[in-house]
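Ticket #4471: structure output looks truncated?

Reporter: J.K.
Steps to reproduce: submitted the chain below (71 residues) through the standard prediction queue, then opened the result file.
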Amino acid sequence: MIGQNISSTTYPLESSTGASLASFTSLGTLVSSGNDDTNSSLTNIGFDFWFNGVRYTQFGVNTNGHLKLGQ
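Returned output as attached by the reporter:
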């Protein structure tokens, strides 16, 4: 297994003030019950999610527990 070096350039930190978080009253359903081997449609994350130096804004899931970032 090859290790990954994580540094401040890999995941830069940004700070800000005056930002508020959205209040979630209902998160909704991505895949309805009773489905097997079904993928959800792509869903917006709602913010920029950086992973391994790549920016993602959407994700999808399936009923087998797999989560996919991006298209």
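Triage note (M.O.): checked the attachment and the full token line is present. The chain has a mean pLDDT of 82.
Status: closed, working as intended.
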